[in-house]
């Protein structure tokens, strides 16, 4: 009976990571008609409306109050939420979706490094070694095993490093909001981040860095925007949080490694033919990330006291994978 319940619960994080893995190629196809900043702003304006509506229905208007923590919410929303999503969209204009997916999959490990830098909590040596192995795999995919391919890291790779570090800061900051529900934290930081995205898009349009999309262009990419908004920014996040609650953060985190696998499969079905060294690099990255997630799992110490009440998983709020790609 317990095995059946766990198998059913596993469907939630599986749904989330499959949705995220499919999203990168979809967003890349939309960039042919709408500039990255405008595309990101459009889909998050819609996503925030949906998230706010859900929050009001579930927790009431009181959940929209900042409780004296406005500065923290704004900083985390701008640095993490806006920074990650804007840089990821910009990077998709310079790098292939499968490369972006591999960078995103390193978020749990990068978050541990951010925690080390900010709190002095040193990660396990094994975790550091595995993170280097994972980055080696990413390098093989991007360079296709040739030193001449180092130039392909280029601007897209730099942007994704910034995106992942920004999300690591956002994830670390979530540990200070343990009394908030994941839905409330996500919605309020998304509001702050979306405001920053809107401001960035207005400035970029005004100075000519990009161009405000025509109505026809927005209509042309409506299916992609609809999927990225509803599938990637709403359903996937809610499914992920449900999976974390039912499976525990450590077990749910393992599903994150399916994001690059899903993106590779989508690209292959669209006609992309990866070279053997790319497949080897992807396999190295995924294997290293699985091992890293296993290394991050903590075993609870046995308590001499009888357990009389159910305990929720507090790590779900601060675990890197628990808030990753919201």
Give a structural overview.
The structure is a single chain. The protein is mainly alpha-helical and 326 residues long. It is built from 16 helices and no strands. It has helices spanning 2-9, 11-30, 36-59, 70-91, 97-105, 107-119, 125-143, 154-173, 182-207, 215-220, 222-247, 249-253, 258-269, 276-296, 315-318, 320-323. The longest helix is centred in the middle third of the chain and has 26 residues, at 182-207. The radius of gyration is 20 Å and the shape is globular. The relative contact order is 0.21.
Please name the defining characteristics of this protein:
single chain; mainly alpha
Short synopsis of the structure:
By secondary structure, the chain is mainly α. The chain has helices at residues 2-9, 11-30, 36-59, 70-91, 97-105, 107-119, 125-143, 154-173, 182-207, 215-220, 222-247, 249-253, 258-269, 276-296, 315-318, 320-323. 73% of the residues lie in helices and 0% in strands.
Please give the alpha-carbon distance between the first and last residues: 32 Å
Order of H and E elements: HHHHHHHHHHHHHHHH
Multimerization state? single chain
**Which value, in Å, is the CA radius of gyration?**
20 Å
Task: Give the helix tally.
Answer: 16
| Secondary-structure-derived class | mainly alpha
How many beta-strand runs?
0
What are the low-pLDDT stretches, counting only 5+ consecutive residues below 50? 300-326
Strand content: under 5%
Global morphology: globular
Query: How would a crystallographer describe the biggest sheet?
Result: none
**Share in helix:** over 70%
Q: What would the average pLDDT be, to the nearest integer?
A: 78
């Amino acid at each position: 009976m317990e095995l059946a319940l766990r198998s059913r619960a596993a469907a939630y994080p599986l749904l989330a990571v499959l949705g995220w893995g499919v999203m990168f190629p979809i967003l890349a196809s939309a960039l042919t008609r709408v500039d990255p900043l405008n595309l990101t702003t459009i889909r998050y304006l819609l996503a925030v409306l949906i998230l706010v509506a859900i929050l009001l229905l579930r927790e009431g208007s009181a959940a929209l109050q900042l409780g004296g923590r406005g500065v923290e919410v704004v900083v985390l929303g701008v640095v993490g939420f806006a920074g990650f999503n804007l840089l990821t969209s910009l990077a998709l204009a310079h790098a292939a979706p499968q490369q972006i997916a591999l960078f995103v999959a390193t978020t749990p490990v990068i978050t541990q490094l951010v925690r080390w830098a900010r709190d002095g909590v040193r990660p396990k040596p094994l975790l550091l070694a595995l993170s280097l192995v994972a980055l080696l795999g990413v390098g093989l995919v991007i360079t296709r095993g040739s030193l001449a391919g180092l130039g392909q890291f280029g601007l897209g790779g730099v942007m994704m490093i910034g995106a992942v570090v920004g999300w690591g800061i956002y994830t670390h900051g979530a540990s200070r909001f343990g009394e908030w529900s994941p839905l409330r934290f996500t919605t309020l930081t998304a509001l702050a981040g979306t405001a920053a995205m809107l401001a960035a898009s207005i400035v970029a349009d005004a100075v000519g860095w990009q161009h405000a999309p025509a109505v026809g262009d927005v209509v042309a990419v409506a299916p992609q925007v609809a999927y990225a908004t509803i599938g990637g920014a709403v359903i996937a996040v809610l499914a992920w949080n449900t999976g974390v609650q039912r499976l525990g953060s450590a077990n749910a985190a393992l599903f994150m490694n399916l994001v690059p696998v899903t993106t590779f499969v989508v690209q292959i079905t669209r006609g992309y033919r990866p070279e053997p060294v790319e497949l080897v690099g992807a396999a190295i990255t995924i294997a290293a990330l699985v091992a890293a997630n296993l290394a991050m799992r903590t075993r609870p110490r046995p308590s001499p006291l009888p357990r009389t009440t159910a305990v929720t998983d507090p790590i779900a709020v601060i675990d890197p994978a628990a808030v990753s790609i919201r």
